[in-house]
Amino acid sequence: MADHFTKGMARNIYYGGSFSVFLLLLGLTYNTMLELPKRDHRENITAAVIMGKRVWENNDCIGCHSLMGEGAYYAPELANVFDRRGGGDVVAFKGFMQGWMAAQPIPATARRKMPQFNLSPEEVDAVAEFLIWTSRINDNGWPPNIEG
Amino acid sequence: MKFKSQRVAKPYFIVAIALFAGQVLFGLLMGMQYINGDFLFPEIPFNVARMVHTNLLIVWLLFGFMGASYYLVPEESDIELHSPLLARVMLWVFTAAGVATILGYLLVPYAKLAELTHNELLPTMGREFLEQPTITKIGIVIVCLSFVYNIGMTILKGRKTVINMILITGLIGLAVFFLFSFYNPVILTVDKFFWWWVVHLWVEGVWELILAAILAFVLIKVTGVDREIIEKWLYVIVAMALISGLIGMGHHYFWIGPGKYWLWLGSVFSVLEPLPFFMMVVFAFKMVKQRRHQHQNQIATTWALGTAVMSFLGAGVWGFLHTLAPINYYTHGSQITAAHGHLAFFGAYVMVVLTIISYAMPIMRGRPQGNSIIAQRLETAAFWVMCLSMFGITLALTVAGAWQIALQRLPDAGEALGFISTQEKIVPVYWVREFLGGVFFIGLLIYISSFFVGETDRVAEPDPLILTG
Question: Among B73, B201, B291, B447, which has the highest number of CB atoms less than 10 A from its own CB?
Answer without folding.
Answer: B73
